[in-house]
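Work Package 3 (structural annotation) set out to generate three-dimensional models for the target panel prioritized at the project kickoff. During this period the team completed the workflow that converts sequence records into discrete structure tokens, so that structures can be stored uniformly alongside our sequence database. As a representative example, we reproduce one entry of 151 residues exactly as it appears in the project archive.
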Amino acid sequence: MKKILLVEDLPQKADNIKSLLKLEFPEIEIEERSSYHTAIEEIYRNYNKYFVVLLDVSMSTYDAGVEENGGIPEALAGKMILDGMYLRDIPVKVKVMTMYESFDGKSIQELDKELREDSPENYDGYIFFSFQKSDWRKQLSDYIHKMIEIK
């Protein structure tokens, strides 16, 4: 069975993405992580289980829980994850799913260019997610179809 790792700390956004994937790709299993540390741990240990990672850029360092506040917000956690994947030569494609147009003073276009240069083996572009617009749905669907054909 094909698996996708969804790294997203906003439950409503994760639910929207999962709904689309489950509707259009019922044969794909979705694993979720919601913080930098749990995502990087999952990727390092089990990257060979996934054919693609859908990655948020900004997230907390740790999962929020009953006795944990989620650590600190990290504006470029997704970039840090991609850097770690590059250093460990992890060959999984990553599609960034973001709602923001800038990160720590960088526009999404600047970040896109930087990620393409720094992580060409992994980084496969970004999709701009929106609760108001639905164009991200077709972009994500087309991307997953393309990735299924490649694998």
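The first strand starts at residue 3 and ends at 7.
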